[in-house]
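Page 47, continued from p. 46.
Same chain as before, 726 aa.
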Amino acid sequence: MTKSFYFGVILLLSFFCHDVKAQVERVNAIGIADTIHTRPIEVVADRVSGFTISRMNDIEAGVIYAGKKTEVVIMKELTANLSTNNSRQIFSGVAGLNIWESDAAGVQLGIGGRGLSPNRSSNFTLRQNGYDISADPLGYPESYYTPPAEALDRVEVVRGAGSLRYGTQFGGMVNFVFRDGGNGNPIEANASLTGGSFGFAAGFARVGGTTGGVTYTSFYQFKRSDGWRANSEFDMHTAYVSAKYPVTDAFTLKADYTFMTHKAHQPGGLSDAMFAANAQQSVRARNWFSVNWNLASITADYLVTDHTTIHTIIFGNASSRDAIGDLNRITMADLGGNRTLIAGTFQNIGLESSITSDFLLGDKVSTVVSGIRLFSGTTTQDQGSPTNQGSSYKFPNKNAAAFSEVLIKLTDDFSVTPGARLEYISTRANGWYTTQVTDFAGNVVADSTINENRTNNRVVGLFGVGLQYAVPNSVVFYANASQNYRSITFSDLRISNPNLKIDPSIHDERGYTIDVGVRGALTEIIQLNASAFYLRYNDKIGEVLRSDEAPLYLPYRFRTNISDAYTAGAEFVADVALRDAFALSAHNPDVHLLVNATVLDGRYINTENTSIKNKKVELVPNYIFRTTLRATYQGFAASIMWSAVGQQFTDATNATFSASAVNGIVPAYNVADLSLKYGRAWWSIDANINNIFDARYFTRRADSYPGPGIIPAEPLSMFLTFRASL
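Result:
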């Protein structure tokens, strides 16, 4: 079946290419070809200097963004703590993100939104320079690697309508784009050194340039810290190298490689009482976590004609992660017995190729983007202790997809973008697990091994449409509706965790996303992006609180398809240039006020289960509010940011408390940050104070690593960075 599907996709594209050729000939024959300019191989959006929020162009690098909710974080406009990858500061201009703050240095990004879990950003398709960086985008869509903020040019965010182009997900896509060495100089370099609270130290060095026609970039970063809490030290190394070469005027090749290694001591979670008494304490001294990440890609861009380009990426991932520790409830002391080791490896390779072509519809030039995705990966996961090997599994995963979207210009200002995606997914699980029965004294009275082989093949079709009306040199009104689909993950198939049990009949989720919004410049003073959305989940996977049988009745999370659910809300981001608003001269400081506000509501519906009917969807705070005041003047820059996030639940029953601390309320919290910078021609100094009022709060209750239990957020901490450039 897989070979037939691949053949059908290739055949479809061959017919499409033939039709494109005919359309191009028609364009030239009509005599208006001089109105269609040569399509650049790489397109960088026209960003407005001074503003931190922007949007994607209607078409970029083989993707149609017209009619979709898009946001772009422009790194050079930020005054933020880049050395620690501070997520709440970097994403301060992106609406509605719920951010988990599980470590002090931004080692693992945890962002979610619209009721989707932030756990390792698994509900977003995470990409770097346009290709996947997660362990397995379908079977294990968690990313243990986050690109260093100091190396980035920008971060691109596309919401749920990106499913037609980027695959089956509800959250959207986040793409980290590195700075390249394409300024024309043979060599350019920059470096930084950072020292901070709790023994934090970091170094970053980057070299890039263009020589002999080759544009190259490389960097290395090191981070280490003793940590605020006991048993929380870590060190991390990241390296990257890339080279781009124009083989001909029409054909360009680029290759890159990324390596990251990370080892961290994990202090474990806390109960509610422990957190209230002393949030700094640690009751786990033997929990460790390590990651080795290897990514590589080859990108080819080919300008077929002035109106047709082909963009192809081949990418691969060969990585591993090991977690060892005591997974028992945090209220149970670690008595020094055997720990649980979860060891995983991830090996995958994929290809994405798209064709972008202009064609005439009436007297208007429209654009079609069609392409394919081929992916094959294998994940292995072993779990157990030296005396009890609990399970050993291999998870092969294959995926093939064909997609197409058409940007149809009905008028110069109004366009419609219909699209479709056909996805073939094959997920298998081959392995075994053990079961044990113990007496009241804890002695094993029965022990058995169960072999298991599962195969799940399915074909999924997704459809969507976007509308866009652009007021010339002003704002853009947009609307879209797209179907979404999310495959069950390998963790849903098999994992042993005393705090979590999985329904053996758990299955994939379906739904759709609707966005209506406006973005752009109201005047030269205000840049905004405001929208309303509705996200519908059918058979939403979630967790409810249950208890063991007598005599212990210990609580645990039960993961299953709970019921249908929705999340709805309004998202608003505005960046106001206050100096221009008050008509002050350019001799005054340039001051910007960024306001980012979201209101949300999510409910479980269409269920007779009274424990969850009309209950709030977990991880949906009523509000998320972030505002930043920043000023620049003669080499000096300052930024103060305030974040306020409302109360949220962590399970579908809306439990306010559990003895294990893995369920319960995440209380509303407020946190403020201050960033200062002073720079001259070739050097600068950054000073950052995170959590300036030393608030005690937490954003996460973990059911396993790095918990279980409450993971406290970092207290007041200070960092000083020296930067130099050549």
